Amino acid sequence: MNEPQFPSVPEPVAPTRRRFLQITVVGTAAAATGPALTHEAHAITSFLHPGVLHKLSDLQRMKTRIAAGTEPWLSGWNVFRADPYSQSAYSMKGPRATVDRGSTEVGNWELWNDCNAAYQNALMWNLTGNTAHATKALQIIKGWSSTLTSITGKDAQLAASIYGYKLAAAAELMRYTAPSGSWSASEITRTENLFRNVFVPLTRTFGDAGWGTNCIKAMMAFGVFCNDTSVYNAAVDAFHLHSCCKISRVFRDTGQCVDSGRDQAHTQLILGSMAEACEIAWVQGQDLYSASANRLLAGFEYTAKYNLGNDVPYTVWGPCQATYGSISTNQRGTLRPVYEMAFNHYVKRRGLPAPWTYAATQRITPEGAAFQCDHPGFGTLLFTL
């Protein structure tokens, strides 16, 4: 495949509220061996709300473009509003007191579905003003926050991070935009307690590669919603310093991912999760996207190029707990809906070239909701600038 044709790169948008003070981190176990790590100062002391993926100006941008019938937002909107999880008539599947992602799977399907519907109905409420969507999102949030007490099973951390992240994104939107009187202070506190007592203890363990990167994005979302800087900052510490899931360990400087030799689904899961963490940070005034010399961009370019049918260099490598001798063809060419977020940041905000990421967006535009248990999806609507 020839190098993709790429539109002219716009002038980069100057970032606002960025914190670029550089600090050197030394003497920590998480830093492992080698030279001291230098990265952006990461301790945050306050939050912008709503601030999990979408701030108010982002919501207004979408509404304005939809109302004007402007592409590609209109095509993205048509896909989003037709999705089953975007319906105010969605039938809630839970709640349950216990969810198991492991041997029994009790409650797992219910929580997964309901968190998707809560997030998408919260967005629908903000984009349409139809109170039926607000009612549905709050029904789900209130139901689970008053019932769920534990998440168990061998993959409990994945359930807590992937599903909990969506629930926190929904709760963050509704906390600051819900119709007056529809969500009481005591109910909001109960939702905070759900995240603090059930979700955070699981995600704070982080872990290797895919688990750890999902836990990072979830912890950041929980921190924002709960106004808990210690939770949020712990996640950003892991992004920079955790021995197995930090950005410089998850991707080589070539862009090769620790899971490139495992399969392309898990590789893109990691890409999407790290981008979502970076997007939350960007909303909060931090630039994680540029960490380790734009290492995440290298990951997107490498993975997109390979999944579009091209050869890429490969080094025998893997996550902390495995080694893969060659790049995997498993699910090669099945593109997940994670590329628009990265393209819009690196190209439209920062003016950097990303030709293979752009080519991937064009293959699946308008971006929809495949694998939406793992990702927000719908990037053509949600993240096009």
What's the structural blueprint in terms of helices and strands?
Elements: E1 22-25, E2 37-40, H1 56-68, H2 73-82, E3 98-100, H3 108-128, H4 131-145, E4 150-152, H5 156-177, H6 185-203, H7 209-226, H8 229-241, H9 247-250, H10 264-283, H11 291-307, H12 339-349, H13 355-364, H14 379-382
Parallel strand pairs: 3-4
Antiparallel strand pairs: 1-2
Helix pairs in contact: 1-3, 3-4, 3-5, 4-5, 4-6, 5-6, 5-7, 6-7, 7-8, 7-10, 10-11, 11-13, 12-13
Q: Can you give a write-up of this model?
A:
- 51% of the residues lie in helices and 4% in strands.
- The protein has 14 helices and four strands.
- A two-stranded antiparallel sheet has the order 1-2. A two-stranded parallel sheet has the order 3-4.
- Helix 3 packs parallel to helix 5 (156-177), helix 5 packs parallel to helix 7 and helix 10 (264-283) packs antiparallel against helix 11 (291-307).
Strand order of the biggest β-sheet:
1-2
What's the story with the biggest beta sheet? Answer: 2 strands, antiparallel
The averaged pLDDT comes out at 90
Uncertain stretches: 5-40
Strands, count: 4
First-last Cα distance: 28 Å
Helix-strand string = EEHHEHHEHHHHHHHHHH
Radius of gyration: 20 Å
**Overall morphology:** globular
Number of helices: 14
Taken as a percent bin, the fraction of beta residues is under 5%
Q: Helical amount among residues, as a percent range?
A: 40-55%
- Structure class: mainly alpha
